[in-house]
Amino acid sequence: MSRPPRGPMGKAKKGTLPRVIKMFFKFYPVLAPLAVACILFAAVTSSLPPIFLQQVIAAIEEWATTGDWTGASKVIIPKVATLVCFYLVSICAIITQTQLMAYMTQGFLNKLRKALFDGMQNLPISYFDSKKHGDIMSVYTNDIDTLRQLVSQALPSLLQSCTIVMCVLSIMLYYSALMTAIVLAGVVLMIFVSKTVGAGSAKYFIRQQKSLGNAEGFIQEMMAGQKVVKVFCHEKQNEQDFEKLNNQLFSDAYRAHAYANVLGPIIQNIGNILYVMVAVIGGIFLLTDAKNFSISGLAFNISIIIPFLNMAKQFTGNINQASQQINAIVMALAGASRVFELMDTEPEADNGYVTLVNAEINNGEIKEVDFHTGRWAWKHPHSDGTVTYTELLGDVRMVGVDFGYVEGKQVLHDVSVYAEPGQQVAFVGATGAGKTTITNLINRFYDIADGKIRYDGININKIKKSDLRRSLGIVLQETNLFTGSVMDNIRYGKLDATDQECINAAKLSGADSFITRLPDGYNTMLSNNGSNLSQGQRQLIAIARAAVADPPVMILDEATSSIDTRTEAIVQRGMDKLMEGRTVFVIAHRLSTIKNSDVIMVLENGRIIERGNHEKLISEKGTYYKLYTGAFELE
Questions:
Q1: Residues 285-342: tens digit of each pLDDT
Q2: Which 8-state DSSP code applies to residue 299?
Q3: N or C: which end of the chain has fewer CB within 10 A?
Q4: What is the pTM of this model?
Q5: Residues with Cβ < 8 Å from 258, sequence gap 6 or more?
Q6: Ordered structural domains, the chain, with CATH
Q7: Could you give the 3-state DSSP secondary structure of residue 322?
Q8: How many other C-beta atoms can be found within 10 angstroms of the C-beta atom of residue 27?
């Protein structure tokens, strides 16, 4: 079957950070502001010591001059006690904030993963056909983890650092505008270095996330196809292919972290140089009795210079701390963009309004009921408020259908199929002829480009997709079993089925005999897509899963392709019972399994070139005759 080309996940987009913050506050409208308040309180408290220090040093200077300890103690003791009280409250705020952030971060990721997964369930099949599954998995693991670092560490630290910077800047301006100007000159250099180095870091952190997704996608594909790899001795080539992806990841990660690691030491040493400059220039101002320009009106003295040194260190240290968060934020935004790209992918469009309901039918009169009767009807509401019911019979008709997975590359050309209720319609043709594509269109996994598909006379575009698919049972060529017991996997076809219904479905398909021989029978646990079963056994469970759903229309896509000839005879008897009274579409390479079909259609390059029953097609001695007699192979 042709499929659309695969492509990588997207790049970081503008507005991602505000969206993350907005979503976080939406999830926690009370706790998030409380955590922010605690961060702000702790930040402001850590900015206050220079004020107290200046006042204490001034009191000590006065004590040294006058020798009056009593007057000095009235300033020193209350100031120290007040500062201690502030610190005690700040400790409580920090503990509260850390506990809140731990709870909210994990809760945020929990809600985000749930929103991602719930949204993914509504995506069209075409999305998964065009994306590497390992790349999608990387969104749930690596990209989500970058958001954990962003929410729990980077943003709180950035908020705290910025608050301290603003508070300290205000205090510095209050005490000395000249000394503040010296500090700001050094800060301008810091910002320039941060911007220059940070730009390179950001570019490679974004590349790192993409390279990581590509590498994980490759690993996932190799794990899924390990048997094929070993059969064809493809290990060395895989090692070379992975080495290219891994080297690209190494290159991007190395450059990202090289930029990131060099930024901190540069900023820190600029801060150290600035500290020395403040000490030297402050000493010069003090010795020359320079005029101080300040809001406080205080002259230059030791009680200003000493706190100023601490403030300069604190100011540059927090700028350095803020710059260190840039890398985590950039990487998180790259991951968040991929998360939001998956989250924002348009769900599968469904404008249908005709629904499937349980029905009682007496003398042609259809009555909707709320319990299972084994009879179904289409409920069709009309614009005038009336509702009509149409019995579900399984009449499926395709008229003049054109379709292509990719624009400009048509797969089906003017295909018309007529399946009356209870008929078995078989499709024959080489791989890529369009057989599976036809069944995909009946399921509305994809929508047609032109033509009509009608189900019991109703355009399938008017039927809700969930109801449409509920009326169709399907057994795919590729069997998918899920982690759980055998019973759970059969019940997947009908979640409210009883154990007895599941067992009856297994007997119908011929699976019961081997299931009862398993160590725990129907309670035997399956994992890794049922790797502890043979391919034929897995297929029998898939057939039982379709049987328990008891749909009026069945699609069998190479349903017996993985079953040996002896097992096929067992399955065929069950399949014959399963197909009784149903409309059935069969795709098969084994022509012996379809010769009793009411209609056989031979496809070639997306066109139906022959149609009729087995006897008719044999008598025409065309393509089907040559296939059946072995004149040439399907492939």
A1: 877 777 777 777 777 777 777 888 888 888 888 887 887 787 778 778 888 888 888 8
A2: P
A3: C
A4: 0.70
A5: none
A6: 110-344 (1.20.1560.10), 420-447+460-629 (3.40.50.300)
A7: helix
A8: 16
